[in-house]
Each structure stands twice: as C-alpha cells, then as structure tokens.
Amino acid sequence: MIKPDAVANGHIGAILNDIIAGGFKIVAMKYIQLTQESAGNFYAVHKERPFYGELVGFMTSGPIVAAILEKENAVEDFRKLIGATDPSKAEEGTIRNKYAKSIEANAIHGSDSDENAEIEGNFFFSQFERF
Ligand code: ATP
Ligand code: MG
Q1: Which atom of ligand 1 is nearest to the CA of 58?
Q2: What confidence tier does 131 reach under pLDDT thresholds 50, 70, 90?
Q3: How far is the centre of ligand 2, averaged over its atoms, from the C-alpha of 100 (Å)?
Q4: How many Å apart are CA 70 and CA 124, to the nearest integer?
Q5: Which of 13, 71, 95, 102 minimizes the number of CB atoms within 10 Å of its CB?
Q6: Which domains does the chain have, with CATH numbers?
C-alpha cells in the first residue's frame, strides 16, 4: 500500500517504478480512501499500541494505492525494497529512505508474512476483481 503521505507528495509514479524495477509484477491495483473503520480493521494488530489512534487518523487522511504484487520470495524482498519502519534508519536507496518523512508517515506498507499477504490481499480485493 502506498500511504497517504506518499500519494499527497506526488510519489505514486516513482514508487511504482521502483517496485517494477525491483522485479515485482502488479497483479491488482486500486486508488481509494480508507474509512476509519477499514483502517482500524487493517491495523487491528496494533490496537493496543499507543500510536494506534494517530495511525488510523493518518491512514484515513487522504487516498492510498492498494496493490497485490507477485514475485518469488516476495514478502522478504519487498521489505528489503521498502526499508526500515523508521525512514531515518532505512537503508540508502530504499523507498522509505527516499520518500518517507517520519516513522508514522512512512510512505508505504508491505505485508510481513505470506499469511498476512493473503489476508491483506483479500481485505482490498475480491477474487472477481483479481481475475
Ligand atoms: P507496515 O506494517 O506499515 O508495513 P512495518 O511493518 O514496518 O510497517 P509496524 O510495526 O507493522 O511497521 O507498524 C505499522 C505502522 O505503524 C508503521 O508503518 C507506522 O506507520 C506506524 N508506526 C509504527 N511504529 C510507530 C511509532 N512508534 N510511532 C508512530 N507510528 C508508528
Ligand atoms: Mg507491519
């Protein structure tokens, strides 16, 4: 998911270029704005964290790009491509290093396991939309 900060700052095209150059195939993609309820559900694993309310506020602050990507070893390779959660710690050349401003407004989300990639893909896309 390309987050509201990166969309607002005009980085959709550059980020998609990096993703494609990284060897990922875009299988499905949509441009939408999340509701409080859907952002809350998406980040439900962080419900107890102190930043949850702000995170939901930020994620609903503007449109996002949701996509399903395909590649061998996709989860691990995508997390390498996006870099550390805190952009000040993200390696040079990573998407968060180049396009993110803060630990909250960090430009992009990547699934953290194959299992969660399946869940998050189904959160944004029905099978009908995918094929
Ligand atoms: P994501 O799940 O978005 O790909 P991540 O897996 O690198 O990011 P998580 O620990 O899952 O990091 O945190 C989810 C999101 O919550 C982060 O991307 C960031 O937007 C926000 N977040 C994480 N830690 C903090 C924090 N300490 N303060 C504010 N926001 C935070
Ligand atoms: Mg995460």
Answers
A1: 20
A2: low
A3: 15
A4: 15
A5: 13
A6: 4-129 (3.30.70.141)
